[in-house]
Specification:
Length: 182
């Protein structure tokens, strides 16, 4: 199954996506807010080790909603890879999500489109009640993105940068903006 938007799709990551992911993870511009301002310096062997731990590396009948901890590739509708999307669900029916886009695709509304369709899919196919993110306090662009998609700051002692979006938050966000990206 692919999760489709007007310009992008999120699909389960495949082995042939590893070179793109390696370049994404090794890009210091993309990874600086994850604590790797010079990139992660991951090797091909490191990518293969990572791949062997992903649920989809062992299954052929995969979809994002069928995986406990899915890893998805974000691509343009023509198949050009532009980023990655991941989520995991905890015992409290909360999903922690993360997305990264290659720097060439920043500033075009693609992160907003990705996050919107991903949240819609998670709420439609799971029992998740709340989605959590933890953007770096310095990542102002991520803060604007999360606000557009219905998130608000919800810090805790152990997670001072935590933001959350409930089903109601997502449903109540700016209707005009939703019409623009739907």
């Amino acid at each position: 199954m692919n999760v489709l938007g007007p310009r992008i799709r999120i699909r389960p990551t495949r082995h042939e996506d590893l070179p793109f992911l390696q370049s994404l993870w090794n890009d210091g511009t993309v990874m600086r807010y994850k604590g790797y301002p010079n990139g992660m310096h991951v090797s091909e062997a490191g990518m293969e080790r990572w791949w062997s731990t992903t649920p989809q590396s062992h299954r052929s009948d995969i979809s994002l909603s069928s995986l406990a901890t899915p890893h998805g590739l974000i691509e343009l509708l023509d198949g050009t890879p532009i980023g990655e999307f991941t989520y995991s669900i905890d015992a409290h029916r909360r999903a922690g999500i993360d997305l990264k886009l290659a720097a060439d695709y920043w500033g075009h509304g693609l992160a907003t489109e990705t996050l919107t369709i991903a949240i819609r899919e998670i709420f439609a196919t799971t029992a998740v009640t709340t989605i959590l993110v933890e953007p770096s306090s310095e990542n102002v662009a991520a803060h604007r993105l999360y606000c557009r998609c219905g998130f608000h700051p919800a810090p805790t002692e152990n997670h001072p940068d935590r933001w959350e979006c409930t089903r109601a938050d997502f449903a109540n966000r700016d209707k005009a903006y939703l019409a623009e990206v739907a």
